[in-house]
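Hi P.,

Sorry for the delay on this. The queue was packed all week, but I finally got your sequence through. Input first:
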Amino acid sequence: MIYKGFKMKLYPGMEAEYEKRHNELWPEMQESIHRHGGRNYSIYLDRETLTLYGTIEIESEEEWAKQADEPINRKWWDFMADIMDTNPDNSPVCEDLHLVFHLD
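Then the structure:
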């Protein structure tokens, strides 16, 4: 199991909308995450900086990378692009974090 951490940036005033959209996560999106080996996925918000911190367990980097090309994932990116920093393809601007400690 690989433990991934990353950060993203939310636009000001979009905190409630971001949480609402994730509370209503499409079943097809959830299935895609699981199909590509993603488990125990959490996202935290630092309300002072509007930085989102995500953690996920994946089975392999290669399989997880394939999820980005799924049509449902592209649709999700388009859906979220109006409330957070994104790249030209609407993927979230995302910076991987370096794991320094993990305890089960």
